[in-house]
């Protein structure tokens, strides 16, 4: 947005400069028209003189006026050429600035779209995380209940002492393994005696 504002300010400055140059061009053209009007007025003045005086004065004044006009025309043509060149350069600069504004706006839209997509993905991830936490809590609760049942089954057997303090998973497994081994041994002995 800052880049667009900066480009727009530059474009406004260039357009203002273009208007100023065009105004100067119009002024020069008006000055040329004024010169032409002066020449016509002088021509009307000479019409009242005698033919010979008229010819002499006209010749002298026309030569002077021609020299002045040639100098003015040369200067104004040079100024107009320079101003036309400046106008072309300013128009080209304005076109480039407009293109940069369009490009910057497109980039801004792309960034906004990417930000929107990223935000949407982040929301989806947060939702998945919440679901995973709920599922994990549920599994943890089920596992804790199952572990408690194993502990009750393992330490409710006759001849096994009640645990002192909180049991580790290894201690629970060890107690279960002991029960399994004892039952397996007992079954083997029964089989060896022929009992079902």
From TrEMBL:
Keywords: Coiled coil. PANTHER family: COILED-COIL DOMAIN-CONTAINING PROTEIN 27, FORKHEAD-ASSOCIATED DOMAIN-CONTAINING PROTEIN 1-RELATED. Residues 4-38, 66-128 form a coiled coil. This is CCD27 protein. It comes from Toxostoma redivivum. InterPro entries: CC-FHA_domain.
